[in-house]
């Protein structure tokens, strides 16, 4: 049977910069026929980009740390270790955003950029579509506090050996999905990438 869904009703529950929409819909079932009418809320934002900044000469990654409202229900975990990321604004490409956000959030100029993957971050409740990159950087100039004042960003930049970043992932110091995916990808592809970039 062909997979289909039908939107019966859509309403905008909250019309802010991030939008909340509510749907009443039904969809086809694997066993045949259609589901009951179901109600779902959807968090809607524009497409986004994240980039793992990697220095292949020093085998180091540039990580950032900042307060995240999505983690405030666990107060001891509200400051997350992540990678550079940002939303795609009108007229921008995903690649443009990778270069822009790397400077804004980490003070790093990307020398080369490769795409890792494109995926939904949490499609059970959000429409966020993310393009994930790895960017070649010179980590010797990275560090300090960055971010845009008009976006109330307070971002600490940390340069760590790749092995240290992977240890942080394994020991639960990195608990946000996007950097976990990026660091695991780098673990699988690091030798090939270093041959290409050094």
Compute the number of structural domains: 2
Q: What integer value in Å does the Rg equal?
A: 19 Å
The low-confidence parts are: none
Number of strands: 11
Per the CATH scheme, the topology name of the largest domain is: Nucleoside Triphosphate Pyrophosphohydrolase
Morphology:
globular
Overall mean pLDDT: 95
Distance between the termini: 51 Å
Structural class: alpha+beta
CATH class of the largest domain: Alpha Beta
Number of helices: 3
Major β-sheet annotation = 8 strands, mixed
Q: What is the N-to-C order of secondary-structure elements (H for helix, E for strand)? A: EEEEEEEHEEEEHH
Quick one: CATH superfamily of the largest domain?
Nucleoside Triphosphate Pyrophosphohydrolase
Helicity, as a percent range: 10-25%
CATH architecture of the largest domain: Alpha-Beta Complex
Strand content: 35-45%
Description:
The protein is α+β, with helices and mostly antiparallel strands. The protein has 2 domains: 5-44, no CATH class; 48-197, Alpha-Beta Complex (Nucleoside Triphosphate Pyrophosphohydrolase). Helices cover 22% and strands 39% of the residues. The protein has 3 helices and 11 strands. It has helices at residues 94-106, 162-170, 177-197, and strands spanning 5-15, 19-27, 38-44, 48-55, 60-67, 79-82, 84-87, 112-120, 129-136, 144-146, 155-161. The strands form 2 sheets. Strands 4, 5, 6, 7, 8, 9, 10 and 11 form an 8-stranded mixed beta sheet that branches. It has a 3-stranded antiparallel beta sheet with strand order 1-2-3, with no helix packed on it. Helix 2 runs antiparallel to helix 3. The longest helix has 21 residues, at 177-197. The mean pLDDT is 95.
């Amino acid at each position: 049977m062909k997979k289909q869904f039908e939107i019966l009703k859509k309403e905008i529950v909250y019309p802010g910069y991030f939008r909340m929409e509510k749907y009443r819909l039904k969809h086809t079932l694997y066993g045949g026929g259609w589901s009951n009418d179901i109600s779902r809320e959807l968090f809607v934002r524009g497409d986004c980009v994240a980039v793992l900044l990697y220095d292949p000469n020093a085998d180091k990654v540039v990580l950032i740390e900042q307060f995240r409202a999505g983690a405030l229900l666990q107060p001891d975990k509200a400051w997350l270790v992540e990678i550079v990321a940002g939303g795609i604004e009108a007229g921008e490409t995903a690649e443009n955003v990778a270069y822009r956000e790397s400077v804004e959030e980490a003070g790093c100029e990307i020398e080369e950029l490769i795409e890792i993957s494109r995926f939904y971050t949490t499609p059970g409740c959000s429409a966020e579509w993310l393009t994930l990159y790895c960017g070649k950087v010179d980590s010797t100039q990275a560090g300090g506090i960055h971010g845009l004042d008009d976006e109330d960003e307070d971002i600490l930049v940390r340069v760590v050996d790749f092995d240290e970043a992977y240890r942080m992932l394994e020991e639960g110091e990195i608990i946000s999905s996007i950097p976990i995916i990026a660091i695991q990808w780098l673990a699988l592809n690091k030798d090939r990438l270093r041959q290409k970039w050094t």
